[in-house]
Automatic annotation (TrEMBL):
Record's keyword terms, sorted: ATP-binding, Nucleotide-binding, Transport
Family listed: Belongs to the ABC transporter superfamily.
Domain ABC transporter: 6-224
Organism name: Belnapia arida
GO molecular function: ATP binding
The keyword DNA repair belongs to this UniProt entry's keyword annotation: no
Entries under Pfam families matching the protein: ABC_tran (PF00005)
Membrane-spanning intervals of the chain: none
Official protein name in the record: ABC transporter ATP-binding protein
Keyword Transmembrane: no
Amino acid sequence: MSDAPLRLEAVARRFRTEAGELPVLTGAELTLAAGEIVALVAPSGTGKSTLLHLAGLLERPDAGEVFVAGRAAGTLSDDARTAIRRTEIGFVYQFHHLLPEFTAEENVVLPQMANRTPRAAAQERARQLLASFGLAGREHHRPGRLSGGEQQRVAIARALANAPKILLADEPTGNLDTGTSDLVFGELLAAVRGQGVAALIATHNPALAARMDRVVTLRDGCIVPG
Ligand SMILES: Nc1ncnc2c1ncn2[C@@H]1O[C@H](COP(=O)(O)OP(=O)(O)OP(=O)(O)O)[C@@H](O)[C@H]1O
């Protein structure tokens, strides 16, 4: 399935530490089908964030290959990888990483303008996305004036702003209380399903993982069914 949105082929990554070489990933294989939502559930320190960084072209593997929409990323220049990241991939982190001096709307507009969307169209999409997350009327609030759940909703809207094919999320509701986490996570899943985005979502929460299409884990640096 060469045109799957995301495919990892024998991906390996090791780090040099004071204690010696640490082989974190040793041959990770994963294919995300179009619109498929996969939970990545694995103990702390087994390489979930490392895997997401490689899948998102933020880092390069020591061996193996990452394919985005069938295109091998390894041979591409950093600029070409940045362009793919901007157009094809959305990221959500545990902490929202919103720009504090910009409003909610501007935080969703900026990645679109970086992608050459005209401002008016970007604003329209930002308003629609924010409204779909229940944030109508709060578009002009800065992150500091929003609750934790609202901030995370803005971060999800921002990740979806450029209509990516792939969403990568690292504990996207991990800093919220249980009730808010359940709500925001449900909204994230609904948005991802509604837009047909393929998603790889790391979580420690088995109840959240059970709401996805498939669960995988990491064992000895490889991806296995969870
Ligand atoms: N840049 C780095 N240099 C050295 N070691 C690193 C580096 N990045 C990650 N590691 C190590 O690689 C291992 C995997 O880290 P990673 O952050 O991918 O795990 P994780 O499964 O996401 O953990 P958590 O659930 O705690 O976030 C850890 O032992 C970590 O200390």
